[in-house]
Structures are given as structure tokens and as C-alpha cells.
Amino acid sequence: MCGIVAALAARNVQGILLEGLKRLEYRGYDSAGMAVLENGVLERQRANGKVAALEEKLDQHALEGSIGIAHTRWATHGKPSEVNAHPHLAGGRVAIVHNGIIENFEPLKRELEADGVVFESETDTEVVAHLIDRAFAASHDLLAAVQSVLARIDGAYALAVMHADAPREIVGARKGSPLVVGAGIGENFLASDTLALLQVTDRFVYLQEGDVVRLSDAQGIEIFAGGEPAEREVHTFEHGDGAASRGEYRHFMLKEIHEQPSVIAATLAGRLSGSHVLESSFGVGARALFERVRQVHIIACGTSYHAGMVARYWLEKLAGIPTTVEVASEYRYREVVVPEDTLFVTLSQSGETADTLAALRYATSREANGARGYLATLAICNVPGSSLTRESDLSLMTQAGPEIGVASTKAFTTQLVALMLLTLSLRGTRGDERETALVQALRGLPALLEQALEMDGPIAELSEAFAEKHHALFLGRGTQFPIALEGALKLKEISYIHAEAYPAGELKHGPLALVDADMPVIAVAPNDELLEKLKSNLQEVRARGGELFVFADESVALTAADNLRVLHVPAVDEYLAPIVYTLPLQLLSYHVAVLKGTDVDQPRNLAKSVTVE
Ligand code: M6R
């Protein structure tokens, strides 16, 4: 989705803004632009398409200025085009970049048109630029002008504004879309994502909903909430700038697949004692609160939803806690019955997914509406300071580090680890035999994942069988059914091969009709209590001439034959098998996508963080 970078410095900021935009490319966008202000003159360059197209224009006509704003746009109002690209100007004095949607832009636009304003673009953002221009003409104060306009607009936004007559100021604001302040030495920045600014600082202030910020030479960083000055903590980013580069890897996705052993170790670090999980990892008071939990509702989207589906098996079997899992876009528009003592859990890599955030707000508003409320809300999230963590009672941060590839990989497996920590914490049988064994198995997980990554070569070879296919079917049973769903999502997302997943026992109720020599069937077969059942389902496929690819526990006696290829996966505790079996499926989609020559890290039509509904 859209990206923002802004800089107020004592040096030329074109390079900083351009590098920031490149670092935001992974979020998905269709045009880019930049404006700088020097000696009271605004200059702008915009280009349809990739940031590289903007860079070419800047090569021909560089922008010189020590204060500037820049943007990558993902079209909502008006098609992708140079004229709709941000920054938008008003009166040649105001420049604005905006993420989000202004819902009441039409009446505001009509009002401005009636007053003689001629619009250049089809965007909702240009309306805000003109409103600020008018408000500034009255107050000659950029902060006051922005604040007065914010009071008139409905919707979601993160924005950054400059005015030619306030030549050493940038005003930013956030409501519904993320915006962080980067604190430098003698220079300050704004961005929609910390990654854009790691080139210049590692100190960040995560703005809260409704915050307005002014960067100026005179006062540095000033934050206002409800019109009053507000204090916000400065956080140091701990993952280093390496997170923003591919290093030796051909794609971010491959790098992120290979990071899984280390980020899972980081997610476990400090959260296990000798034989049990430290409930305090979820926040102050978590232990007492967990003792009261009788039900769990899990809400998420996409890959995070699949993690929730695995957790349902764990929570019901290991902790005996009735659990429901639902996609956020459905939950938020449904009348939900909330049983007493229910914990509401959201899962999100970004912590800014619009549907998940709206679901959280819907869940917490129920209490205010007089309906029976949830016992508490818990967010399992990968981005510190994100809206989801700030608005939840408890949170557990996965330690996956920045995930750049649009296809989620390490965020998913660290979510699974976090969900196993939650399951064990909710069992209420601290340090019993089962917990001790699982804690032990968790500690061994990074080493096991290293072994699973050694399957890379054979999987790359296997992927050749898929490159010409148009469809694929994934099968799993029990906790492996969500893993099959996740495998299918990865394959369709980055290779554009149509893939579906079924619980293997469901095959004969319809999908078996699809099976023929052109439909590769991928099955995940750990050594668990459902293995024999799964094997029978696989026979059903073979009997119909289907081509089978099975990822099976090394102890499972399955012999390769015509139309049956078997790849052995390291033996693993049955509860942790979903985590280990995810890796070969990630590698398979990766290699198929590479063979097909798709844009692995930025697949078509997709955005990393879906901040609009
Ligand atoms: O940031 P979130 O975890 O809330 O994102 C949810 C989905 O948009 C995300 O998992 C999406 O499905 C991924 N692209 C899948 O690889």
C-alpha cells in the first residue's frame, strides 16, 4: 500500500527520500513522487510505475532542497498515473503526501469547486491540500492549518505536509494509517515504516492514533494529541539496517525463509524458564488473567489466519479451551456471541491490517454498547508500536524482524511459536510433564529447522515438475490442514498457479473429481495419529492417476514409485510438526516462482500491509 517518507535536514534530502522510497517498494505501489522546498520554492517530480522511473526523472532534473516529502502510491481514488501520483500541490504553496482514504472528500470537493478551485487530479488527497492552503491563508500557521482541516475530514490517514511560507517545517498526522518519527542528529524524519529511515537513524517515535507532529528547526520534534503537547517514548530499533537488504540472497523471501531458525530462537528467548513458559511475557497481570480464560476467539487475515487455525487444534487438545478462529473481514460485520471469560486474540505480522484492526475495535466496542464483552484482548504481532499492540490489553511480540517479501514466511512460523507459548500458558498446569517435554522440544526447534532447510536442493529439483502446471492441490490432516492451506496460499501468491487445499479426508466429497495427470497433489505427512488415514487418502489419489508429492516424516515407510515422489522431513514432536513442515512448502513455492520468473518479493496486485478495507 502507499508509503510516505519526509525529511527536514541541513543537507540535500533527495537521496534520503529516494532511498526511503526504494525501501518501501515491498509494500506494493503503482506510482511515486517527491517534492522539496528550498528558499520558499516548491519543486516536484512524479512518475507512473516503479521508483526507478522516478529516479530516471531525478537523474535528468535533480531536486535540490533540505526539506522534502515523498510517496509511493497504491491507487484508490483515480487510476495509477503521473497526475494522480503524490505529492499533490495546492496554490503552488502546499505540498502533501497521504496514505489512507478520505471518506467525505466528495462534499468537500464540491464545496471547493463551488468556490472556484480547479482540481488537477482525481484523488481525495488533493482536496486536503486545498483545504490546508485556505486554512493557512487565514492563520499563517501550518500546524494550526493542518489541525483545523483534520477536524473536517473523515476516514483514515497518515500524512505529511509542507508549505512554502513555513519553509523549515513539516507537519504530519496519523489516524488509521501508520506514521513514525525518525529522530536524527540535527535532522528529523517521518515515514510510514521504520525501514524507510534505517538508513539515517535507529531512534523512532511511534505516533498514536490522532497524533499530530511538527518537525521544525526551532523545536525539533513536537507531538500534539487533542491539540495539546504530548510526550511519546523514543524506541531504539534493534534489528540493525541489515534487515532492509537481501544480503547474499537472490530474494528477500529466500533470505526470510532461511532466517527462521534464528528468529524462532529470538522469539523464544527470555520466554521460557527451565520447564515452563513465563506467562509474564504476555504483559503485566497476564498470569492471573489467563487463569480466568474459558474460551478463545482468534481473529486474523491471510497467513496469520492459518496460524490461528493451527492454534485451535493446540488450544483445544493441549489446554482443553474451546476456540474459534475467523477471518477478520467476516468477524467485523457479524453479530458475535461472546461467552463469558473469552480471550480475544488478534494475529498480525504488521499490526496495521485494516480488517484485523477494525475487528479489534468492534470487539472492544461491544462492551461499550452494553453487550457482554471480552475478558481481555491480546495481540500477537511483529511490529513494535503498531496500532494493534497499542490498542490491545496484552501483547506478545514475535521477533521475526522486518519481513520485506510480500509472501509471509518467518512471520508465520514465529506466530506459531508464540501461539504454542500461549497454549502452554493457558493450560494452567505449570511445568507438568507435557509442558516440560514441549518446552524441551521448542528449545530444539531452531536446530530442527536448520535441518529442514537442507531440503532446499532436492526441493529446487522437485519444483521443475510444477513450472508448467496451472493448478495444484494441497492435502493435510489435523494441524497439517492449515499448513496445506498456507502452502497453497504461498504457491498462488508468488507463482500465480491456482492452488487449493483440502483436509485429505474431504477429498472424496468433491475435489477428487479434479485429480488427473495434470493436477499435482502435494501432501504433508508427519508421523502422527492421522498418518494411516492420510495414507488411505493418498491411495485414492494414486488410484485415479494423480501425481503425488509427499513431504513425509523420515520414519514413514513410503516408497517412491511412478507418480509418487517422497521427500523426507526431519522427525519432529507431533505438536511442533506444523512449524517444521511449513518450511518445505515455502521452499517449493519459492523455487516454482523463480522458475516461472515472477516477481517473487512483490507479486502482482498484492501489498505487504493491507491498510485499507
Ligand atoms: O500483517 P498481517 O499478518 O495482518 O497480514 C495479513 C495478510 O494480509 C497476510 O498474511 C497475507 O495473506 C500475506 N501476503 C500472505 O503471504
CATH superfamily of the largest domain: Aminohydrolase, N-terminal nucleophile (Ntn) domain
The largest beta-sheet arranges its strands as 3-2-4-1-10-9-11-15
**Overall outline:** globular
CATH architecture of the largest domain: 4-Layer Sandwich
Q: For the CA atoms, what is the radius of gyration?
A: 26 Å
What percentage of the residues does DSSP assign to strands (E)?
15-25%
User: What small-molecule ligands were found?
Assistant: 5-amino-5-deoxy-1-O-phosphono-D-mannitol
Sheet having the most strands: 8 strands, antiparallel
What is the C-level CATH assignment of the largest domain? Alpha Beta
Plain-language structure description:
The protein has 613 residues and is of the alpha/beta class. It has 3 domains: 3-243, Aminohydrolase, N-terminal nucleophile (Ntn) domain (Glutamine Phosphoribosylpyrophosphate, subunit 1, domain 1); 246-443, 3-Layer(aba) Sandwich (Rossmann fold); 453-601, Rossmann fold (3-Layer(aba) Sandwich). Helix content is 35%, strand content 23%. The chain has an 8-stranded antiparallel beta sheet with strand order 3-2-4-1-10-9-11-15, covered by helices on one side. Strand 18, helix 11 and strand 19 (376-381) form a beta-alpha-beta unit. The structure holds 5-amino-5-deoxy-1-O-phosphono-D-mannitol.
